[in-house]
Amino acid sequence: MNKGFRSMHPAVALLYYAGLLLFAALLFHPVFLLTEMIGVLSLLLMQRQGRHLLRALPFYLLMAGSVAVMNPLFSHRGANILFYLLDQPITLEAVLYGVMMMLVLLTIFIVFRSYNYTVTTDKFMYLFAAAAPRTALLSLMAIRFVPLFQRRLRQITLIQSTRGINVNSGKLRKRMKDGMTLLKVLLTWSLEEALQSADSMKARGYGIRKRSTYGIYKLDRQDIWILIVLAVSGLCTLLGWLQGYAMLEIYPRMKPAVFSWGEAAMFASFCLFVLTPLGLEGKEKWLWRSSRRSGYPSVTPMKAGIRSMSFRSR
Amino acid sequence: MLCGPSGCGKTTLLRHLKRELTPVGTGSGTLKYQGQLLAELSPERAAGEIGMVFQNPDAQIVMDTVWHELAFSMENMGYPPSVMRSRLAEISGLFGLEPLLYKSVHELSGGQKQLLNLASVLLLQPKLLLLDEPTSQLDPVAAREFIGILQRLNEEMSMTIVISEHRLEEVLPLADRVLLLEDGALKAEGSPREMVRRIGKELSSSHLAYLPTAARLFLRLSPEAEYAELNSLPLTVREGKQWLQKRRLLETDAKGMAVAGSVANTGLSTDAEVLLNCREVTFRYEQDGPEVLKKLSLLLFRGELLTIMGGNGAGKSTLLHVISGLAKPQRGKAELAKGVSAGYLAQNPLLYFSQDTVLEELQHMAHYAGMTEAESQHEIAELTAIFQLQDLWGSHPQDISGGQQQKVALAMVLLLKPDILLLDEPTKGLDPGAKENLASLLLHLRSQGASIIIVTHDVEFAARHASRCAMLFDGGITAEGTPESFFSANYFYTTAVNRMVRDWLPQALTIEDVN
């Protein structure tokens, strides 16, 4: 199902996620990181991906949590010593740094989750093809082979088991040998077919001149506007970072966080960047909901002339 | 239209007409396209104006989604996006591909894949279309649809089409010119009706198989065929029926036609030993997937040849999987009688091969069957003699023709000495001669006491050789009986002969039945 942010041009999505990753790596400030995390999290929830996220969450928490625990155990920098563990000083700064690292990791995980959902393989390939058409074509063909080979191998395994070749019984040596045999069958078959594929490509004029690309995605006006908004707000945030804003200094001694006007402005543009897709998603939701309330299956505003028709259809 | 037995050079000829695919080898003579030597054509013209569709629907597809596959050829030619868009729109409209456009290619049926291949070639707007047995891997419904589209292209766009086909019933009446190839040489040439007359007059009876049923019936029933007017030769079922009607009016006494003795098949004999008993078998592939088989019950007796027919995806292959034990039903049981084993031959014989030569394949199988060296040598020699595989012993299984591959795979299955033989679409892609060979093989096996279940779309084959026919629909067996009763009860799903003569001889199924 493509709607909301997911239905936008791949370039928009790519810019957004590239920005998110960049900011997660550059900005070392709890407020910014939390904003980004919550923003992407809500985007996922609005796209009804909560359930999938929940399944992966234990792993994310384990990974990120272990970083938070490990850091104070291995790093003893910092001025404020909280207590000694096995003669090792545990400092407040190291604990805070660990928590920050955890935030960064969690943010990156969630961003990737959202990226996987929004930018599907063919969208990525579309963008990729613009940069490197031949490589993109090759990778597309290669990607196609993965599920194809899986299906074929399943068939081969089934049939070869009727002649005693299977990997589920017998000694390890025999199993390994049979496994190789199955792969050999798959390979012979697929290579044989690849010859025909090559014929079919040649017959359709592959390689006689420079290829053009056919795209199913159109850059519409909304896409352009969003691109501009994202680019400007992203650049402003980047400028702020160059000014040294949004960098929490922890080692050797944590500096008190002062939220200057400059930093506030940067935060505003950062929010704009992070939350724009959320707004798009929300707008779509609201349109559908409001149209349901008015009894229209579309977002057509109510007009006097149409109302009578809608009554009749009811 | 090109016809002729497998290996007579049809494919080689077609490949010579397509410059990019000209086989490597020594050649002589010239090929001209619109007065220009084919070899001197610019690459754009050669690729664009001469399009070719091959036999195997899967192997020709390069991309993973339908729209991408369609765009592939146009991208190769470097068309600008606006041109691609409009051509794509046009062709999708013509072929009804819109609902499939964003689908992944592997979700398509064989027929849809072949349509996609044709559409992809047509996007380059070719003037000459070459088709190498395009429908041989398709079921009858999909094949008819494909041929229908070819007919439209030919009639509405006046596109030149060269096609090689085994499915003559539908294609021959549409052809303007028929070429009969044999051993790499042109044996005969002419309009379809001229070919009927020539084959009836001078050529041997093995060529009869290349004519549609109506024409064969005509040649059989009227000895004066060679003097008949060219236009009165029937090619289609409709023409055949009209001709029969006229003939009946001429012959005032109706004794001109009668059922020629009942067919040798004995049909159902209740006292025969039951080899297989399927009781209320229910099967689904996934937990919440649809039920492929629904409480299906089926009996198989010794010495029978049972054909199971049904549409695409009706669960025919699944049923064979269940019977052979490759799939376990969720409910019900497929019980084999004591000491009875089943051997299963899948549609694709390539799945069976894993060794380097045919002989090694057979030896490996014999070894698996638990035979001693002497036994296996004896068995293999015997099967080789029956299947005429002597010359193939040393060749790689991938290098031999499709019909030969099937024979080798069948021989391998037979080494297991199954009492029940399960064959999945064994006649697919075979030329008429190979079909006859297969039939006589099956007859030989039956005479040795084996029972055979064949899953097939091939109505003519079933009518001619089966002892019992069954229809699989909606997960269950909906009708079964001897071929005579089974097919005469059907209105559409029956042989061409039956459709022609059913008003007078409802039981007649094959040409031999009509006298």
E-strand count of chain A: 2
SS element count, helices of chain B:
18
Largest sheet of chain A: 2 strands, antiparallel
Would you give the CATH topology of the largest domain in chain B?
Rossmann fold
What's the overall average pLDDT of chain A, rounded?
82
Cα end-to-end separation of chain A: 28 Å
Helix content of chain A: over 70%
One letter per element, helices H and strands E, the order of chain A comes to HHHEEHHHHHHH
Sum up the overall morphology of chain B in one term. globular
| Name of the CATH homologous superfamily of the largest domain in chain B | P-loop containing nucleotide triphosphate hydrolases
Largest interface: A-B, 46 and 59 residues
> What fraction, in percent, of the residue positions of chain B are helical?
25-40%
Give the total of domains of chain A. Answer: 2
List keywords for this structure.
heterodimer, A: 314 residues, mainly alpha, 2 domains, 3% strand, extended, disordered C terminus, B: 515 residues, alpha/beta, Rossmann fold, 3 domains, 6-stranded mixed beta sheet, 3-stranded mixed beta sheet, 17 strands, 37% helix, membrane (chain A), transmembrane (chain A), Energy-coupling factor transporter transmembrane protein EcfT (chain A), ABC/ECF_trnsptr_transmembrane (chain A)
Characterise this structure.
The complex is a heterodimer of chains A (314) and B (515). Chain A has two domains: 4-119 and 221-287, no CATH class; 124-203, no CATH class. Chain A contains ten helices and two strands. Chain A has helices spanning 10-26, 30-46, 50-74, 92-118, 121-131, 133-160, 172-203, 221-242, 261-293, 304-313; strands at 81-85, 88-91. In chain A, helix 2 (30-46) packs parallel to helix 4 (92-118), helix 3 (50-74) packs antiparallel against helix 4 (92-118) and helix 8 (221-242) runs antiparallel to helix 9 (261-293). The longest helix of chain A has 33 residues, at 261-293. Chain B folds into three domains: 2-187, P-loop containing nucleotide triphosphate hydrolases (Rossmann fold, 3-Layer(aba) Sandwich); 191-256, no CATH class; 274-492, Rossmann fold. Chain B contains 18 helices and 17 strands. In chain B, the strands form five sheets. A six-stranded mixed sheet of chain B has the order 13-14-15-11-16-17, sandwiched between helices. In chain B, a hairpin with a 6-residue loop joins strand 9 (274-284) and strand 10 (291-301). Chain B starts with a strand and ends in a 14-residue tail after the last helix.
